[in-house]
Write a structure and sequence with these properties.
Length: 432
């Protein structure tokens, strides 16, 4: 099987859609010899920030000398980005080889009349096989949707259950209240692991604390408000937190301080569990961490930024950063969202900042909100012009061409189209 054939096969598997539950992934991994049981995990759940927490944590662990796997979704730059070891993507030939192994396992399941795995379950199995094959010391694992019934929750050997900021998202799938959502995400807590979280809303803390006590888990709580900002701009920031002085991170946005402080709690918890992680590894890991799509600069003339903000809390954080970093500067937005997101609230938060907004449809035609529908949602809030673009390319071209010297071009609303925006902006920046 070639890499192209592997991708075609997984596209075919995707027809089964998304199904919450562990029975099918359990059957698939049984066919593959339970690769996840030979690995140790740092399992991360949350609504906003879990990707950044994963990036910081895995980079620090690699700097500390641990062979570290990372499994993330969705990706921005490349499909292969979702499976990495020490920051390097899985090679195409190995990916194809492991997909073929998974394909044969699925065929055996189907021959017995068992349910067919979803594409996410198949990809998760590929990741576990790869990490076992390469003998990873630790795997930093991001949940796909929720926690309790997410395919990644099939793992048993959880060292840490880590929680980034939990807020309302995916209502209907995870629960209608913040408490119900927290219960779902708390499902990743396993007996004897250590729970790590930044201080959350009281109802969330009650859920996490109760689950930790029930399963006899230690708990490490960090307090981002105690962090002292030393320096900040859109190109990076420095802060201190308790004994950690003058820590530099390369990611922008005040919310990244909360993510970084959460990771300092991760480091403390790992040290308490016997892992050796030097201060140098922490400092170097923070400084070297990159994470596309999180207020990321992709071109400088004009200044083009991309951010995956796709819910109310993320939009509030993005707005705070824009106001802080770019006061009084003209802003041109490109916005695309999924239909099942809180797009009205995002429109209300972000619309007033923009001098012009180009609305686009996302590559996933089954989930995207139409560009015209998004335009109508924005009109009550945008003081500038809202224009429906015929496509992502037109939106990027028009925004970059019309941007003046000090203007900001920002694409946001979903990670799913930002990779294309990045390609186009880089190319157009060279031509302008």
């Amino acid at each position: 099987m070639t890499y192209k054939e592997a991708r075609v096969y997984l596209d075919e598997v995707s027809k089964y859609g998304s199904v919450l539950g562990l029975d099918t992934i359990r059957g698939l991994l049984r066919e593959l010899g339970h690769p996840q049981d030979d690995l140790k995990f740092i399992h991360i759940a949350g609504t906003n920030g879990k990707g950044s927490v994963l990036a910081y944590t895995s980079t620090i662990l690699s700097e500390a000398g641990y062979r570290t796997g990372r499994y993330v979704s969705p990706t921005v730059v490349s499909y292969l980005e979702r499976i990495q070891i020490d920051g390097k993507w899985i090679p195409e030939d190995e990916f194809a080889e492991l997909v073929e192994e998974v394909k044969k396992a699925i065929a055996r399941m189907e021959a017995r009349g068992e349910a067919s795995p979803t594409v996410f379950e198949a990809e998760t199995a590929v990741a576990f096989l790869y990490f076992r094959k390469r003998r990873c010391d630790l795997v930093v694992l991001e949940t796909g949707l929720g926690g309790l019934l997410d395919a990644t929750n099939i793992v048993k050997n959880t060292e840490l259950a880590v929680f980034a900021s939990i807020s309302r998202d995916h209502m209907g799938f995870l629960g209608e209240s913040l408490e119900e959502i927290a219960v779902n995400k708390a499902g990743i807590i396993k007996p004897g692991c250590t729970v790590v979280t930044s201080l959350q809303k009281p109802e969330v803390m009650a859920v996490l604390g109760g689950k930790a006590r029930e399963l006899k888990c230690g708990m490490e709580v960090v307090y981002p408000r105690e962090a002292v900002m030393i320096e900040e701009n859109w190109d990076g920031q420095r802060f201190s937190y308790r004994e950690w002085e003058n820590i530099r991170i390369s990611l922008a946005g005040r919310f990244q301080i909360e993510n970084a402080v959460t990771v300092l709690g991760v480091i403390r918890a790992l040290r308490n569990r016997g892992y050796e992680i030097s201060r140098r590894a922490v400092e170097e890991g923070f400084a070297k961490t990159t994470w596309p799509g999180r207020l990321t600069c992709v071109a400088r003339d004009p200044l083009v930024l991309v951010d995956g903000a796709h819910n109310e809390e993320a939009a509030l954080r993005l707005r705070e950063s824009l106001v802080r970093y770019f006061p009084s500067r003209r802003m041109l937005f490109i916005m695309g969202v999924f239909r099942d997101k809180e797009y009205d609230k995002i429109a209300e938060i972000m619309g007033p900042l923009a001098d012009k907004i180009y609305t686009v449809e996302l590559p996933d035609q089954g989930r995207t909100l139409g560009a015209d529908e998004l335009k109508q949602a924005l009109l009550p809030y945008c003081v500038g012009v809202v224009e429906e673009a015929s496509g992502i390319e037109e939106a990027v071209r028009e925004a970059c061409a019309s941007a003046r010297k000090d203007d900001i071009v920002l694409a946001f609303g979903s990670l799913s189209y930002l990779g294309r925006v990045m390609e186009l902006a880089e190319d157009m920046g060279e031509k302008l």
